[in-house]
Amino acid sequence: MKEKMMQSLNDNTRFWFTAAMRCMDGRWSETTGLVDRYHSLRDEVRGTAWYALGLLMRDGADDRARAAQALERVLANQWTDPPGRRLGVMRDLRRNSASRAILRKTRL
């Protein structure tokens, strides 16, 4: 499947996909299971969701396991209050102390 997915990308798209994945690989935190924001010590939930998709597309040696870990962290950092307007919205780990507490609980 990996070869089929990557071959379906044109040369330009494949180049930028590979460059983006290298960048995200370097920002991945094994400790939190999230990618780090650029120029910050904070973690990024939304970027982690996109990274998980990229991992599944790339389908390398450990990509599926890392994607599963990333998606677990993404789901753990979404608002789940059904009556609220924020249902399914990703928490902003920068501003919310409750979000930071959840992040601490989800660390490996």
Number of helices: 5
Round the Cα radius of gyration to an integer and report it: 15 Å
Number of beta-strand segments: 3
Q: How is the biggest beta sheet arranged? A: 3 strands, antiparallel
Descriptive labels:
3-stranded antiparallel beta sheet, 5 helices, mainly alpha
Quick take:
It contains five helices and three strands. The chain has 108 residues and is mainly alpha-helical. It has one domain.
Overview of the structural elements:
The chain is mostly helical. It has one domain (2-106). 56% of the residues lie in helices and 6% in strands. It contains 5 helices and 3 strands, in the order H-H-E-E-E-H-H-H. The protein has helices at residues 2-7, 11-27, 45-58, 63-76, 97-106, and strands spanning 28-29, 34-36, 43-44. The protein has a 3-stranded antiparallel beta sheet. It starts with a helix and ends with a helix. The model has no long low-confidence stretch (mean pLDDT 79).
Ordered list of secondary-structure elements with their pairings:
Elements: H1 2-7, H2 11-27, E1 28-29, E2 34-36, E3 43-44, H3 45-58, H4 63-76, H5 97-106
Antiparallel strand pairs: 1-2, 2-3
Helix pairs in contact: 3-4
